[in-house]
Design a protein that fits this description.
15 helices, 2 strands, globular, cell membrane, transmembrane helix, ABC_transporter_permease, MetI-like_sf, MetI-like
Amino acid sequence: MKSLSKDRLWAIAVLTPSIILIGIFVYYFIGRTIYVSLTDWGNDPAQALALNPIIRWVGLQNYSELFSGFLQGRFRQELVNTLFFTVFFIVGCLGVGLGLALILDRNPKGEGLWRTIFLFPMSLSFIVTGTIWRWMLQPQGGVNQAPTLFGGQPSTFAWLSSNDSVLKFDWNNLPLITAAVVGAVLIVVAVRAAREGQRTRTLVAAACAALLILWAVFIGPRVKLLAAPELHGFNFAMIGIIIAAVWQMSGYTMALYLAGLRGIPEELREAAKVDGARDAQMYRFVIFPLLSPITLSAMIILGHISLKIFDLVYAMAGPDNIAASVPALNMYLTSFRQNQFALGAAIGTILLILVAFVIVPYLANQFKTEEGHS
């Protein structure tokens, strides 16, 4: 009993400094950032850097300004850029990484060398990657000159400086789009819960989906965030940044998938062949389902990276290229160039909420899984 008590005291003594430091440098500063985002610190240039600035509580005014203010169209385009970047970045990394892993899983000649080559980009920082790809994507050189090697004309694609865009939508329709997406997710959750026999979860998800549908039909069309239409879409300037990001991180997903493939027992493959499964069927019904936990983990990590991306965009497109900007870059400019600390803190809080939407459900599921196994 004394030994158990002594071990507990030692554990508390060892963990307490870390808990204190995390509490101060993580959670205190998160709370401080949220508090600052609810004030007007920096709205008055004379008070921004004053020794004792006069700071007033303004509530959600900064958030309202970001989503519906006339001067914050850049931030809204950056949110759209982040959405498209996240989708294409995750899909690209998973697709390329899985393809490379499947090739290496067949034990080609020089496998170690190929694995090193595929993993090498991951060892570079995003600043180095951004600098390399910025040189390669110069409109007057680099990739645009590649057709001349085969006797063709050089390409004229503007890459990082392009202002063309597709998949445009009116920002005023954002509430309706959000309601539709969330409603679809809730319907899927309700269907899965019904199949698993979870009656309460099915009813709650179905009720929430029904409320969203009713809101979208009767109230949503009347909600206008802006006085006039404001179109946003996928800017072609993001294509080069997506290619560079996929080039750097696909080796990481390759390593994850390769580890998963090597961890699948050979007996399962042999059993599938004995049952008459062709290669395509074996991958579809045996191997890919076993890789789904790895896919989920990779999506969480890549989503976390994409939402906070800053250095790659800064190195490739610069701080003033609105077509290729992201919220983290805007947060830096707003806070440390314009000294609008409250507005910058609001952008940072929005990024925190976006990351939490990705991380928290995953962590909750992991804890629930661990409790189930224990």
